[in-house]
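Hi Y.,

Following your request, here is the sequence exactly as I used it, all 139 residues.
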Amino acid sequence: MTVRIAPYTIKRVLKIYLLQVGQVNFGKESKMAGNVVELTDADFDDVIHKSAVPVLVDFWAPWCGPCRMMAPIIDEVARDYTGKAKVCKLNTDEARDSAMEFGISAIPTIILFKGGQVQKKWVGLTSKKDLASAIDELQ
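Below is the corresponding structure, written out as tokens. Let me know if you'd prefer a different format.
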């Protein structure tokens, strides 16, 4: 009998093991390009709920063409709103729990949070103008 295990299950088991032996700290938010913060399942709730400023989260995956098209826009928003909003990216291939919690069924999906609550959600390509005006409304 052959048992098949999904690749993301193997990744999750490896992450748990590495965390237990202290080899890697996946719970720390890490910076991506510019001011964009890379989120994981481990730190998602803390970042969203403990932020004093609005949090914009881009749910994406490396294989997604439209997600790659959104990347420069997300970087610009992060640069323009430094100190006024936190801009984050969450790789849905690696952070499935957080993606499922918010019903992410298509990417890119961008969600704007304030006080841990969803304020606005965009699915598909979105303009910088739309993102900026939504952040401005929350300030």
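Residues 27-137 form a domain with the Glutaredoxin fold (CATH 3.40.30.10).

Thanks again,
Q.
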